[in-house]
Amino acid sequence: QVQLVESGGGLVQAGGSLRLSCSASGRTFTNDVMSWFRQAPGKEREFLGSVSSGGTTSYADSVKGRFTISRASARNMAYLQMNSLKPEDTAVYYCAARYYLSTKYEYWGQGTQVTISS
Fold first, then answer.
1. Is there a smaller number of Cβ atoms within 10 Å at the N or the C end of the chain?
2. Torsion of CA 91, 24, 104, 64, to 10 degrees
């Protein structure tokens, strides 16, 4: 059974940092693009950024310079380092995976709550 499981969410004060982890299991994800999304209450899901199998990253403008995505392919892990957090970063954060030749995200985690207090 293929699974993505996020961890590392929690409550942090504005200006603080959090590191989210995404553990993938069930098959190797070496050839997948690993991405992070978030969804705040009443808002649409927002793409945050991704990391390719070769380590190339891309980011949404809203988080560029504050968030860093990385992966440890040998361990089937992906990470989201979040710095300088703001109350508007409060959301459920999801990791997702798609085969590098596909445009569709086939696998999603269950999400982890991140709450930033002012």
1. N
2. 50
Query: Can you count the helices (H) and strands (E) in the chain?
Result: 0, 11
Q: What is the pLDDT of residues 18-69, one digit of tens each?
A: 999 999 999 889 899 999 999 999 999 999 999 999 999 999 999 999 999 9
SS3 label, residue 98? strand
Interatomic CA distance for residues 32 and 2, integer angstroms: 13
CB 108 within 8 A of CB 94: yes
Cα 113 versus chain centre, distance = 12
DSSP for 20-66 reads EEEEEESS--TTEEEEEEEE-TTS--EEEEEE-TT--EEE-TTTTTT
Specify the residue for token string 């988080």.
63
Please report, for residues 11, 15, 35, 47, the alpha-carbon distance to residue 58 in angstroms, rounded to integers and kept in the order given: 26, 23, 9, 10
Tokens 């999400």, residue located = 111
